[in-house]
Each structure stands twice: as C-alpha cells, then as structure tokens.
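User: Sequence in, structure out. Go.
Assistant: Echoing your sequence, followed by the structure tokens.
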Amino acid sequence: MEFTRHQLALRNGNEREEIWIAYKGVIYDVTNSKMWRNGKHYEHWAGQDLTDELQDAPHDTKVFEKLQVVGRLVH
C-alpha cells in the first residue's frame, strides 16, 4: 500500500493507535516496540520520515529488519 506524508503523520501515537515511521521510502509499524512508547524514541517522533535524522543514529539499519512493513511513502 502507499501512504502520503499526511497519512503517516496521523500515525504518531497521539492521533491514532498506530505508531508508524518511515525510512528510505518504506513505512514501518513500531506500535508494539518498547523503544517507541507514546510515539517517541529519544529525540525522534513517530509519524515522520526519519531518513535524514537516522544518519547520526548509534545503530545501523538492521533495526528495520525486525519491524513490520506497512507500505511505501509517496510524495
């Protein structure tokens, strides 16, 4: 499925129950992740494309392999 930035933004942990993030055009469901409680992970907020922000993350992209893919982010 494809989702817009607006649809992604609604999945921020406040507007709806789902908590989603995007990375390199792929949207991931982090709703059940202990690291994303209340839609926040350290200084990062859910409902956003985190591609640029994760360049400085202390972990590599392997963390995404454990997450469920929801769809693709369209512009």
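User: And one key feature?
Assistant: The chain has one domain: 2-73.
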